[in-house]
């Protein structure tokens, strides 16, 4: 049980402000990549990016140590998670 709790942790070295900044950038890039930028504003980009960071962190934690990755790895994780999240939202909207 302890291994699962360590693997699925969402705390990283960037902190809450870092999540907001990285989430905003990752959400914006993911919305550009997925073609949903016209419907989304800055607030929704930040929300998608932060949720995407948690989603990506959870999914990548099965293969990597995501809690100690730093700014760059957190950004890549948030970007991957945001793209996955927007893809799922597009599938549900159809």
From TrEMBL:
Pfam families: Transgly_assoc. It is found in: Cell membrane. It is a multi-pass membrane protein. The keyword Transmembrane helix applies. The chain crosses the membrane at residues 12-30, 42-64, 70-89. Its main location: membrane. Keywords: Cell membrane, Membrane, Transmembrane, Transmembrane helix. It comes from the Bacteria. Belongs to the UPF0410 family. This is Membrane protein YeaQ/YmgE, transglycosylase-associated protein family.
């Amino acid at each position: 049980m302890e291994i699962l709790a360590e693997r699925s942790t969402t705390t990283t070295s960037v902190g809450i402000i870092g999540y907001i900044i990285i989430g905003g950038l990752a959400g914006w890039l993911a919305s550009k990549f997925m073609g949903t930028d016209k419907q989304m504003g800055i607030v929704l980009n930040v929300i998608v990016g932060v949720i995407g960071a948690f989603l990506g962190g959870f999914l990548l934690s099965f293969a990597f140590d995501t809690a100690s990755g730093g700014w760059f790895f957190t950004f890549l994780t948030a970007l991957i998670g945001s793209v996955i999240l927007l893809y799922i939202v597009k599938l549900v909207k159809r």
